[in-house]
Specification:
The strands form three sheets. Strands 3, 4, 5, 6, 9, 10 and 11 form a seven-stranded mixed sheet that branches. The longest helix has 23 residues, at about 60-80. The chain has helices at about 5-15, 20-25, 30-45, 60-80, 100-115, 130-135, 170-175, 180-185, 200-210, 225-230, 240-250, 275-290; strands at about 50, 55-60, 90-95, 120-125, 140-145, 155-165, 190, 215-220, 235-240, 255, 260-270. By secondary structure, the chain is α/β, with parallel strands linked by helices. The protein has a domain at about 160-265: Periplasmic binding protein-like II (D-Maltodextrin-Binding Protein, domain 2). The protein has twelve helices and eleven strands. It is elongated and about 70 Å long.
């Protein structure tokens, strides 16, 4: 069975933009024409591919097809570039956790990305959830805490990102003058990234038996602002060593639980069959991680 490239293009556009109307604008078609192409593709394959919600999302069958289409497009773009018969840039969609993006990923890969003419399409999510974006066909690779590779993929260890419980000195003196006790952490505000972020919640449950709702918290869903909130004394929170080392050396942040670090093991997930430049990107990322992570 051979897929109609216009129908496949319509499916990618609908999922990438989230609606038939925006996909139509991107493809210079009417929304009706896009809908007809999707329905024709669904008829050929004998299964629904798109859940027509706002935003639109792929069905399980649609996710499998998206995985295939993105891999084919990556291979075709790389081939065109090598033959000098098409665009010389390769678009690589990667799902990555916020702390990795805010700390070591871009500085480590910047030179390689420029030299290899790669265009990044980054999606940021919690390290426990980036795997789902690869599974849904929305990324060609992901940095994840999940060790198990998906069918057709490989998972290679990047190393461990060590987190420490940090606070401003004035915050420590006010709330943890007698140490980080159970009574103290019930009252002292904690800064959490968002409701997917389980680092602080797991730490408080493991060491103090506290469940969510048993302590006070802020939600600050941006890495730089998250660290800034802790530096300003809004609360304590868990920061990666690679991100906050300078502030700790300057005395602007202090470790309030020095004997209780938390290591998060990270893995790089990609398809087993990759384009040549994607393979080189994977090798560069693995090498960079070995130099930065534990």
């Amino acid at each position: 069975m051979q897929l109609d490239p216009r129908q496949a293009q319509a499916l990618l556009a609908v999922i990438d933009t989230g609606s038939f109307e925006q996909a139509a604008a991107a493809l210079h078609l009417t929304a009706s024409a896009v809908s007809q192409r999707i329905r024709a593709l669904e008829t050929v394959l004998g299964t629904p591919l798109v859940v027509r919600t706002r935003p639109c999302r792929a069905t399980p069958a649609g996710q499998r097809l998206l995985q295939y289409l993105r891999r084919v497009k990556s291979l075709e773009d790389d081939l065109h570039a090598d033959l000098a018969s098409g665009p010389d840039s390769l678009v690589v969609s990667i799902a990555v956790n916020a702390d990795t993006l805010a700390s070591w990923l871009l500085p480590a890969l910047a030179g390689f990305i420029i030299e290899e003419r790669i265009l990044l399409d980054l999606t940021v999510d919690d390290q426990q959830h980036t795997y789902a974006l690869l599974e849904a066909g929305l990324a060609l690779g992901c940095v994840s805490a999940e060790a198990r590779p998906m069918r057709g993929c490989q998972a290679r260890p990047l190393g461990s990102m060590r987190y420490r419980c940090m606070a401003a000195p004035a915050f420590r003196d006010r709330w943890f003058a007698r140490g980080m006790t159970r009574a103290a952490v019930q009252q002292a505000p904690v800064v959490e990234f968002n409701r997917k972020d389980k680092l602080q919640a797991d730490f408080l449950q493991r060491h103090y038996g506290l469940m969510p709702g048993g302590y006070r918290n802020h939600f600050v869903p941006a890495s730089d602002a998250f660290m800034r909130a802790i530096e300003l004394g809004l609360g304590w929170g868990m920061l990666p060593e690679v991100q906050m080392a300078a502030l700790q050396e300057q005395g602007r942040l202090v470790d309030v639980a020095p004997h209780r670090p938390t290591d998060v093991h990270l893995f790089w997930h990609t398809w087993k069959v990759q384009s040549p430049r994607m393979e080189r990107l994977s090798a560069a990322l693995l090498q960079a991680a070995r130099e930065v992570l534990r």
